[in-house]
Design goal:
alpha/beta, seven-stranded parallel sheet, two-stranded parallel sheet, disordered N terminus, binds NADP nicotinamide-adenine-dinucleotide phosphate
Length: 235
Amino acid sequence: MSTENDTAEDRVLLITGASSGIGAATARHACRAGWRVVLAARSLERLQALSQELGGATRALAVRCDVTSWEDQQRMAAEALIGFGRIDAAFANAGFGGARGFLKDTVEHWREMVLTNVYGAALTIRATIPALTDSRGHLLLTSSVAGRRVLPGSLYSVTKHAVTAMGEAARQDLNGTGIRVTLIEPGMTDTPFFDQRPTDALQDDDIARAVIYAICQPAHVDVNEILIRPTAQQG
Ligand SMILES: NC(=O)c1ccc[n+]([C@@H]2O[C@H](COP(=O)([O-])OP(=O)(O)OC[C@H]3O[C@@H](n4cnc5c(N)ncnc54)[C@H](OP(=O)(O)O)[C@@H]3O)[C@@H](O)[C@H]2O)c1
């Protein structure tokens, strides 16, 4: 997707959870809008394939990162700066769900989910704040409708409430730095998040467009929350 108009000045969006679903779709939309992207997740081969699709490493840099590892997150931010020299927006999007019911799922699954959805998002904020301060950039977090209304027996819903709180905590903490903070709160979206793919759901592209809307606003406009449901969603 590289064009003769590409320049090293093009803004840089770092995305965790970029190997699939909402993160990968956002990378495609951002590249089309002229951004360079840093693609982070654990599945390096999938990231590399997406990087090739988007024009190679000068436009889309693939970085292996397990968001539960502080070392990985620090390396991710460092590789972004080495590769592109700046980070203008960071999208903490990596996450996964679990079964509803406090007697469902294994405790190991719970541990990984809490570490990924909550601790991982916090580490992405921590790892990217210095670069975002330099760029007077933009921080985005993927919460959920499940981070706005409690779902019965859903520890996943609890993790997403934590992400919603994290967005507001970061917004207040970063006030005065010029960094903007946006919570993306999708309703049911048809991605590999679900083992059984939903019908009447949003598409990953629908969420990607919301991210692009937020990051393309003028510097004085801070879109704090975008809550999106499919028209058909009941809850
Ligand atoms: N789909 C929905 O209905 C929906 C609704 C509301 C919110 N969300 C949220 O949207 C976000 C993206 O989900 P999705 O729907 O796009 O699902 P998805 O297609 O399954 O994507 C999840 C992404 O998270 C990454 N990931 C998981 N654990 C990770 C870890 N430890 N380190 C780094 N990356 C990790 C996965 O990559 P690797 O496996 O390669 O690491 C993958 O790229 C999640 O936070 C999810 O909770 C989804």
